[in-house]
Amino acid sequence: MSTPFLEHFFANRFIHRIGHKTAFALAMLLCLLWSTAAALRTAPEPGAEAVSHEWPREWDGAPLRPMALSDVEQRFAERFPGAIGRMTDGTQTIVMRAVNAPTRMLHPAADCYRALGFRIEQARLERDAQERLWRCFVAQRHGAQKFRVCERIVDAEGAAFTDTSAWYWAAASGQSRGPWQAVTVARPM
What gap in Å lies between CA 159 and CA 124, rounded to an integer? Predict the structure, then answer.
């Protein structure tokens, strides 16, 4: 008895094709509206995180002085899920990012330097004087000064990552809990 009804309902007729396509389009529209509303509910006000975040006053025993973000960094920070701070201890530049959620906007420093025209050399893992593991490389641009750049990400429980992709998947799968602190240190050579 239900077979003729189903055959009639799914029969290849013009009115059925239009009805099915309309129902599908409405479902897609509802999905789009739902995801947009969810994104707007969870999006912080631009710049709210950066203003309220308190950065450390010293790094490895040396006092830090805040530096202004460049225009490019400021535009990036407005969309970043967390806060970005730029500091110096007088000998090196330290960029700290407080990350509130797993994001692909946290990418390797080597990608940034390549985008700015630097050549990346001597990439490797290194331990510093405090036995912290870092991913380091030398960035050089034709006719410009070389920089030794090192980076790492630390989660709320102290676990460290030297690879942003490994961090992202650990964070996205719940194996690493935030907030996270990503640190990039650039020292002129």
Answer: 19
